[in-house]
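Minutes, project check-in
Item: structure for the 427-residue chain
Input as provided by the requester:
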Amino acid sequence: MLFTDRVDAGQRLAGALGHLRGADPVVLGLPRGGVPVAYQVARALGAPLDVIVVRKLGVPYHRELGFGAIGEGGVRVISDDIVRRGHVSEKDVASVERAEAAELTRQAQRFSADRPRVGIEGRTVVVVDDGIATGATAAAACEVVRAQGAARVVLAVPVAPPDAVSWLRTLADEVVCLSTPRAFSAVGEWYRDFSQTPDEEVVALLAQSAADPPEAVKSEDVEVEAGGVRLAGELALPEGTAAVVMFAHGSGSSRHSPRNRSVATALNAAGLGTLLFDLLTGPEAADRRNVFDIEVLADRLAGATRWLRTRTAGPLGYFGASTGAAAALWAASSAGPEVGAVVSRGGRPDLAGSRLPGVRAPTLLIVGGRDTTVLDLNRQAESALRCECRLVVVPGATHLFEEPGALEEVSALARDWFTLHLVSRRP
């Protein structure tokens, strides 16, 4: 995965952190390059932004290779293996550490001057950097926030080598990394623009975040009336929203699906409203036969669409996953122009059967490249559809898109499809 710049990386990373929206998190960026990434994350989560000052200890003849790191509060992390293999003497270690300690003090004063620090005690803290090489700096950052009383530590980065991520999972409560390439030599090679971030930019972003703290799109708990029953849901309508996307969850899933919530966060960030709701009641969901009753699920979705029309008059789209995709296409076949676009993630559109030719809404089918059985079924469905249709295969992804970067690609594809067909084509 190649990022355009740190802003692009931050926006993509924010999409993978949507499950933290309700956790009242604090976002801490590692200066300097981690702060522009963290700023985008903080905006998407509606969280306060601050810095955590940690300094890498670089091998004297190869500064990009870190043999350790130091952080505020006297935290010190040293990789004995790199010290040994890099032939770094005790004298060199002491010299580098003195120089970096001085820079750590300077940065802490520079970035915190005349600005109260954000309190993190007892809170979920998201530590953000623009990438990880050896992991020593990130490890030190995790230790610093632990020492300052964080209740939960989430480390979030766009790119890192697999071995570093494995190690850091033992230090943080959660690690979110979009890409873990095996052929890894430096963070900068995964960015088109990896120009240096000056102190002035860090100070400006912190001031901007403090002066105008962003608000996350607030969701409202609702009861959706559909098919003679009341279904629990969450409705999020960004200010000035142009369209709303309704989510039809797959078999065994619900409005709490972390994958669908992650996609919803990306859509909200793009100004699209979302309705996440359960297609079945609790007792109904306990009977596995119901999750494959596509006709009932489609009827519930159609009823929810009528309910939503009492709240908003803008264009509507459907996002379906697994069996929910079949329900979305079935409902769209009866809705006519009422539904402006459909997106299927790892869906079973084949279960909509004879209803497929009746779908008029532009439809995007997204399937993982390693989800071979479902891919074949989607190809068959693509042939049966008579509407504008596109099948996109995410290379290396399995059915749940759990691979690094896979779900973020789904979110970007869905965002662009709905923006094109629900917003850009409005009369």
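Outcome recorded: The chain has 13 helices and 16 strands.
No further action items on this chain.
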